[in-house]
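dude i think i finally got it to work??
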Amino acid sequence: MPTSGSISVAGDEITSMSGGKLAAWRARHVGFIFQMYNLIPVLTAFQNVELPLLLTKLSKAQRRQHVETALALVGLADRMKHYPRQLSGGQEQRSRSLGRSSLTRRSSSPTSPQATSTARARARSWS
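look at this
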């Protein structure tokens, strides 16, 4: 366990952040890709991608723009209104991996071609 030092990520010094500020920072910058898709079956692809954005200060119009851009980047623009049961496994995974502008993505296989291409696409879209 380190006893001194600091951690800065993208210009933010996170070591001294309070619990609340650190939670807000994580909500804006850290996302996860799960092996199981964890999509909510009663929500459309659009709604599943939008869900984590509801925790941000983005306006409804900004959230819509982020979701539409993200789904288009991974080839799901025509599947926005589809429910998880109507998507292929790969489409479900791409849908769930979106939603937040993230500095970090964690995955059980972070070097997979899908994880790598999705991360690159998302980095370009929110740069």
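Helices lie at 19-29, 45-50, 60-73, 89-96, 113-125.
im so relieved honestly
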